[in-house]
Amino acid sequence: MSAHPPFPPPRVDARELSPGRFWYVLGAGFVALGLLVGTAVFIAMVYRTAGVPGFDARLRGAGEAVFTADGEFPRIGLYSSPAGADGSACSLVLPGGEERAFEPPPYKHTVQGGDGEWSLVGAHPGAAGEHTLVCDGAPGTVYAVAGLQGGSRFFGDLLTALASFVGIPLAGLLVGAPILVTTGVRRSRHRKRLLGERARHPYRP
């Protein structure tokens, strides 16, 4: 009398499990999207805050440069390259014709640009209209002016950059992680249930 071979151990194909693997992709997508968006916003904010500003006028050494300010920024900043040059070498002729010296800058700002290192060496309250930058600097020094953010806005932008770097990825993690965990737990339970059913009712192929 021949003995029947034992039934094979029950198996469950991953494609049978519910919920489907799509939910793994969705959860991981939220996490990855949070990381990507948070990093992109952080880089954009840092570039906007700490990058070389768009200069309205520049001159080398001694001379004059005329530019028009639109009044969008509360101050006009004086930058120098190389960094740390004497800001008192320049003055500003206002739209009304008065010549004024630059005040000390409200904060330190040194950045590396494609044409060298720049630093903020002076500031003056901004006003709309035509201005003239007048400098009597060394021949190798370049001076430039640009709209300057207020100190609170400058540091606010830095805090926003840091918050986006942490907050947006964290939001993606808070959305994506529960989806991943819930999917894994439910698929594991479904697999155990199927294995139990197939162990009770074995099938010989």
Architecture blueprint of SSEs:
Blueprint: H1 22-50, E1 57-60, E2 62-69, E3 75-81, E4 90-93, E5 99-101, E6 110-113, E7 116-125, E8 129-136, E9 142-148, H2 151-200
Antiparallel strand pairs: 1-9, 2-8, 3-7, 3-9, 4-5, 4-8, 6-7
Helix pairs in contact: 1-2
Transmembrane segments: 21-47, 158-185
Keywords: Membrane, Transmembrane, Transmembrane helix
Description:
Helices cover 39% and strands 27% of the residues. With 205 residues, the chain is of the alpha+beta class. The chain folds into two domains: 14-48 and 157-200; 53-150. The chain has a five-stranded antiparallel β-sheet, with no helix packed on it. A four-stranded antiparallel β-sheet has the order 2-8-4-5, with no helix packed on it. A hairpin with a 5-residue loop joins strand 4 (90-93) and strand 5. Helix 1 packs antiparallel against helix 2. The radius of gyration is 32 Å and the shape is rod-shaped. The mean pLDDT is 84.
Question: How much helix, percentage-wise, in residues?
Answer: 25-40%
Please give the count of helices. Answer: 2
Structural class: alpha+beta
Q: What's the pLDDT, averaged over the residues?
A: 84
Q: Which strand order does the major sheet show?
A: 1-9-3-7-6
Radius of gyration: 32 Å
The proportion of strand residues reads 25-35%
Task: List the uncertain runs.
Answer: none
N-to-C series of helices and strands: HEEEEEEEEEH
Number of strands: 9
Instruction: Tell me the overall shape.
Output: rod-shaped
Instruction: Report on the biggest sheet.
Output: 5 strands, antiparallel
Q: Give the termini distance in whole angstroms.
A: 21 Å
